C-alpha cells in the first residue's frame, strides 16, 4: 500500500528489540518506495526503487529523544569527545544529542559543517569551535561516504582528524566500507538495511588513490568570497601553472613548490574578481582570460 513501511526485522531478533526501544521507527513513514508513485530522483535523473527520508523522523520529538537516548546509552562512559554534523539533515540530531548529554559529562562541544562556505559575514565553513578532542560525526545515514568525506576533509583542513561516525542507518555499501577502511574511521549505527528487508548495494565502488602532501603555498591579497568554479592548475614539464584570486598567473616548481615567476594582471586586480579561467599552453605560449 502507498505510504507503508517495508516489513521490519524478524520477531525476537536483536534488531527487533532495538525497534521496540525506538518505537517511533515502527510507525514512521520514512521509507518511500516506487509503489507510492512519487518522484524518487537520483543524481543522474533516474528513479530510485526506494528511498530513506530520515529528515521526516528528525522532525519528531519522540524519535529524536529515542535516538539520543540510544546514543548516550552507548557513549555516556566514554572519555571526552565532541560532536559535529554536516548540514542540513544532521542539525536536529546534533542539537538533540547536545541537549540530552548526561549531566555528569558536563558541556559537550558541538559544531556544524557547512556544505558550502558562507560567502558573507565571517565566511565560515565550520560554525562553532572545533576543540582538541576526538570528533564523532553524526549523520542520518552512511551510504557511499561522500557526505562524510566532505565533512572529514573540512575538519582535516581545520587541523583535526575525524575519529568516528554515528549514523541511524548504515547501508554497509562497498563504497562506504572502502571509505571507512581508507581513513581508519569507526562507524556506529542503530540499523542497517537488513533490518528493513532492503538489499545492500553490491555495485563496485570507483577506484581510489591515496596521496601525500608534497608542498603547499598561499598567495595573499585575493578576495575569497566568490564561491564559483575557478582556475584549475596546468602542468607543463616540471612547472605547475595556476591563476589565483589575487589576479596573478603564477608558475611553481612541481617538485619544491617554489615560485618560478608570476604575472600580475593589473585590470583584474581592481575588480576583486581575480583570474577564474584555466590556463592553456600551446607551442611555447600560455593563454588565459581575465
From TrEMBL:
Keywords: Pyrimidine biosynthesis
Alphabetical GO biological process terms: pyrimidine nucleobase biosynthetic process; UMP biosynthetic process
Keyword Transferase appears in the UniProt entry: no
Pathway: Pyrimidine metabolism; UMP biosynthesis via de novo pathway
Gene3D superfamilies documented for this protein: 3.40.50.2020, YVTN repeat-like/Quinoprotein amine dehydrogenase (2.130.10.10)
InterPro entries: PRTase-like, PRTase_dom, Quinoprotein_ADH-like_sf, WD40/YVTN_repeat-like_dom_sf
CDD domains found in the cross-reference section: PRTases_typeI
GO MF annotation: an example: orotate phosphoribosyltransferase activity
Protein name: Orotate phosphoribosyltransferase
